[in-house]
Structures are given as structure tokens and as C-alpha cells.
Specification:
This protein has two domains: 222 residues, Aspartate Aminotransferase, domain 2 (3-Layer(aba) Sandwich); 96 residues, Alpha-Beta Complex (Aspartate Aminotransferase, domain 1). Helix content is 43%, strand content 13%. The chain contains 16 helices and 13 strands. It has a seven-stranded mixed β-sheet, with helices on both faces. Strands 9-10-13-12 form a four-stranded antiparallel β-sheet, covered by helices on one side. Helix 5 crosses helix 6.
Length: 422
């Protein structure tokens, strides 16, 4: 892929390339020419990743390590989304009801390809919370039934089940996960022991928001399905960080927020339901006669919705592909090793995230021994303008550091120096 085809590829299947002003296109292409790299090149040195970083317009002086809470959009996604919005406002009724149906389906296909599934298994929703509510709302359990929710589940994944358990009378089982397991088998064993003949659903995160630990979804799914148990996955912290093949994971349902590591416009998410599992699902919202639709589209019946953000998510997937899934994953794992290697031998620090690549990727949690995490977080932001997330639950007492493709070694060096000073 050469530089001349860069933007054409970036907006494949959408009209954004035609909508972008010539000034925006020329500015970006000139920057590519000046550096000698393009985002689709095979280059993999710091100059390449500095180019990637230049595509994000962060506030001056900000060092952003909080991608696990909310990610930024690269400039190309911002420009495309704004132009979609301008087009919609120029002829509202045309584009809201019918004018963008083809483009919407192209976004669905792009998302499906990103996760190696069929487009008829993907619903375009708002966020992970909606997806987890969809599963808990749909599966009709009752007294005598059990749902397994480990102790590191995000509230957005637990509250829907708690709500329906109070109404329907089923039991929620909360096994405790190890913070620093020696292997994924330690985690599998937790779920194995929690399963009983009454278990109907396992609802689990793919990556914990507390310490970034990656859970073995495939192995838990295989174990669950042998006993007729459904598996729903909260993937808010993993989608976009490494290559994910949802058919290979073997889970029944998978919900993710695209506005974190996928860099989509805010308030966009994806929901996957395996074809043979869609029979369990009921829409959260119904409008007109769409509730009779037997396809997965019945789960996204919002009638009027924010199409510029939806189409912008398609551009975000293009941007994801422009760098490449394998290259993105390798970079984040390299940054993880670079960060950990600078602190692991120092007794003043204690990592609260497993080191093995099977068990962690973009999110790392580190404790400054003897310091309260809320104070550490405050000093990092007030004195160094470093944004990260303090985690005080589960006995962690560490700052959660979210690494991303716009994180450079210079950024990590600055963070390490700040941690030393704090």
C-alpha cells in the first residue's frame, strides 16, 4: 500500500473521503511525505509510532494513560464524523431514514470482519452496558437457577443481573479471582469450582477493568458448553487491543464499547451473538414493526439514532486496519514490557497485573508501596498532567496505566520519572 492510496483505503466503503476538505487531505498527506512513513508501511520504529501519535489532537501538555476509561479519536475519525454530521444536518430526513442504510451495513461488515464473524452476528449498539443489559433482560431465569459473576466484574456487567435476580428470583454466585494467577488454569479452576447443576449462565469480562487481567474466555466457554451453560462476555477492555476471533473464543454473546481502544466516536458499541444463540435474545427497545424482524437488527431498533457516530465507527475500523491488528498488538505488548522492565526490579513498586502475555496486554496496574493510590493519582495529575485511573478495590491500591498505539517510549519515560518523583 503506497502513500497515494492511503486515504482512499482509510475510508473504503464510506463517503467520508469525498466529504473531507481538500485542506485536511493535503495536510495529512504532506505530513506523511515529510516523515517518510505512512501508517500502512512496514516501519516499526519510534518515528513510525510518533507519526501515529501525531494523528491524535490531545490537550497540550497532557499525558494520557486512561484509554481504558475512554479513548480519543484520531483526527481522521474526527473529521469524517464531523462531515457526516454536516451532511445529515443539510438534509436531515433523507439521511436519517433510508439515505445511509447501505453505509450502515458496510460498517456492520467491517466490524464483523474485524472480529472474524458473519455480519448477521453483529448488532451496532451504544456501549458494553447496553449489551450486558440485553443478555440479562433476555434470558428468562427463575428460582433454582444460578448465574456466575466473578468478583472483578464491572458494575455494568453485574447490575443488570442483580436487577433481574430481584425480579425473577435466580441466584448470583460471586467466586473470587486471583489478582496474580500463575497461569490461566488458575482462573479456569475458579469457574470450574463455581459451576453447579443449577448454573445457567456465566457472565464474565474478557479483561478486568481493575488490573487489566485477561480471562481465558475460550476455555471457560468450552467447559460451560459441555454442561449446557451460556457464556456472555464483557469486552470493554479488550476490543481493539489484540486480534480477536469471536468464533474461536466460542462464547455465545460478546459486548464491547468501541470508544475505548477502537477509537470510535463516543457512545458506539458492538454486540455479537452467535447464530445459534440469537433465539435467546429479546430487544430492549421496540419501534414500529421492526420487532418482528428475525435478524440481529431487531436488537438495534432505535428509530432515530446518531448515524454520524455510527458511520464514524466504520472509519475507526478502517484506521484500525490501516495500522493492522498484529502490528497494534505487538506494539502494545512491547510497551508493556518496556514499562514493566523499568520498575519490576525496584522494591518501591509492586505490579498488580500478571506479566504473561496470555494474562495481560494494554492495561497494567502498579502500586507505589506505602503510598495511598488516591494521593498518587492526584500528584501525577496535578504536578505532571498524567491522566490515569486509581484502583483501590480488591486490595490493589495501584494506578491503572492504559497503554495504546499513541503511547511512545518518551511518554513512558516521562511516566516512570514522575512515578519515581512521587
Amino acid at each position: 500500500m503506497d502513500r497515494r492510496s492511503l486515504l482512499k483505503y482509510s475510508f473504503s466503503g464510506l463517503t467520508a473521503a469525498g466529504l473531507l476538505s481538500s485542506g485536511v487531505r493535503e495536510s495529512f498527506l504532506n505530513k506523511v511525505k515529510e516523515t517518510g512513513f505512512n501508517l500502512a508501511s512496514e516501519a516499526n520504529d519510534e518515528a513510525y509510532w510518533e507519526l501515529v501519535k501525531s494523528q491524535f489532537s490531545m490537550e497540550k501538555g497532557l499525558y494520557y494513560f486512561n484509554n481504558a476509561s475512554l479513548g480519543p479519536c484520531p483526527n481522521l475519525v474526527v473529521d469524517a464524523t464531523n462531515n457526516f454530521r454536516a451532511l445529515l444536518d443539510g438534509f436531515p430526513s433523507r439521511y436519517m431514514w433510508g439515505g445511509w442504510q447501505k453505509e450502515k451495513e458496510e460498517v456492520r461488515q467491517k466490524v464483523a470482519s474485524m472480529f472474524s464473524v458473519d455480519k448477521e452476528e453483529i448488532a451496532l449498539i451504544h456501549n458494553t452496558t447496553e449489551g450486558m443489559n440485553l443478555v440479562a433482560h433476555s434470558i428468562e431465569l427463575g428460582p433454582g437457577d444460578e448465574v456466575i459473576l466473578a468478583d472483578h466484574e464491572h458494575p455494568s456487567g453485574t447490575v443488570p443481573w442483580q436487577h433481574w435476580s430481584e425480579i425473577r428470583g435466580f441466584k448470583i454466585v460471586r467466586p473470587k479471582l486471583p489478582i496474580l494467577p500463575d497461569s490461566k488454569e488458575d482462573i479456569i479452576e475458579v469457574y470450574r469450582k463455581a459451576i453447579t447443576p443449577k448454573t445457567k449462565v456465566i457472565s464474565m469480562v474478557h479483561g478486568t477493568n481493575t488490573n487489566g487481567m485477561i480471562l481465558p474466555v475460550k476455555e471457560v466457554s468450552q467447559m460451560a458448553h459441555q454442561q449446557g451453560i451460556l457464556v456472555a462476555v464483557d469486552a470493554a477492555q479488550t476490543a481493539g487491543t489484540f486480534k480477536i476471533d469471536l468464533h474461536d473464543l466460542e462464547c455465545n454473546f460478546y459486548a464491547a464499547s468501541a470508544h475505548k481502544f477502537m477509537f470510535s466516536p463516543k457512545g458506539m458499541g458492538i454486540f455479537y451473538a452467535r447464530k445459534d444463540s440469537q433465539k435467546h435474545l429479546k430487544p430492549l427497545i421496540v419501534s414500529r414493526a421492526h420487532f418482528r424482524d428475525e435478524s440481529i437488527r431487531r436488537l438495534e431498533n432505535y428509530n432515530t439514532r446518531n448515524y454520524p457516530e455510527l458511520l464514524g465507527m466504520g472509519t475507526a475500523v478502517d484506521y484500525y486496519n490501516l495500522i493492522g491488528a498484529e502490528k497494534r498488538e505487538a506494539r502494545m505488548r512491547d510497551m508493556k514490557k518496556y514499562f514493566r522492565s523499568a520498575l519490576e526490579a525496584n522494591p518501591r513498586y509492586k505490579f498488580k497485573t500478571p506479566a504473561h502475555d496470555e494474562l495481560s496486554c494494554a492495561i497494567q496496574n502498579v502500586e507505589i508501596v506505602g503510598r495511598k493510590v488516591s494521593e498518587v493519582k492526584k500528584k501525577l495529575f496535578d504536578e505532571y498532567m498524567i491522566d490515569c485511573r486509581p484502583i483501590g478495590s480488591h486490595g490493589i491500591n495501584g494506578v491503572r496505566i492504559s497503554l495504546s498505539v499513541f503511547t511512545t517510549k518518551k511518554d513512558i519515560d516521562y511516566l516512570i520519572e514522575a512515578l519515581h518523583n512521587v
